[in-house]
Design brief:
7-stranded parallel sheet; about 280 residues; TIM Barrel; binds adenosine-2'-5'-diphosphate; 7 strands; Aldo/ket_reductase_CS; about 35% helix; alpha/beta; 10 helices
Amino acid sequence: TPKGTCLESVKIAIDTGYRHIDGAFVYYNEHEVGQAIREKIAEGRIKREDIFYCGKLWNTCHPPELVRPTLEKTLKILQLDYVDLYIIELPMAFKPGDAIYPRDENGKFIYHETDLCATWEAMEACKDAGLAKSIGVSNFNRRQLEMILNKPGLKHKPVSNQVECHPYFTQPKLLEFCRQHDIVIVGYSPLGTSRDETWVNVSSPPLLKDPVLNAIGKKYNKTAAQVALRFSIQRGVVVIPKSFNPQRIRENFQIFDFSLTEEEMKEIEALNKNVRYVELLM
Ligand code: A2P
């Protein structure tokens, strides 16, 4: 991201009314997010408690002794005292060290054996220390969630699981499982991603070109993007749309002045292709 883009976008977002900000150390812009939040607090526009900031524990930091120092590093970058939510970004670990994507001489990822339950206990300690108000996970499947939920002596269960979720990948089974366990699904790529071929499976068609989403949008004078976001929130999925464009940042917030009928919800649910844009092949 060009320097300053994230800072400006978060400030516009906060002015627009957004309060939930999804970040991560590996996005390399946490300093700008923190600055935007702090500037808006200094302006008197918001209070710290109005903001819900989610940070993420990266794959190279799964060993339990690294968890708290990693969160402390994020807090230092943000210049905030706590995050509202801290989540394990992925259920598998890479070799700890400076390389974010450690690879061997053949270019293969170097994984690291860790015990997710031990990582979780370190996450619990961060909550107990007040560094994170809540703790959760991301990209966990049912088995991985069950491993945590069934952990002997579990102190805090994951409050949320951030996974890919949108009309072409509706996650019906995981959504139901999480509902039963009071785990909120936070849907990433709710607009179908930026279609950047370096990390996106572009063989799945562009979501926002979908005829059904566009036709329903026409009825409400909304865009396909707004219909896609409304669909997710209406089925209880939290959305974290990404935009660095002021007009689209505002557009993506204009989803609280209309609602989709039950029939339209079913019609959109039927678009599910069960194909991920974000395959996370590593
Ligand atoms: P931009 O940042 O230029 O707005 P996702 O949230 O699913 O990851 O999608 C993000 C992609 O969708 C980005 O490429 C973003 O580009 C684009 N985008 C965000 N909001 C809209 C919108 N309302 N209409 C069309 N494209 C959008």
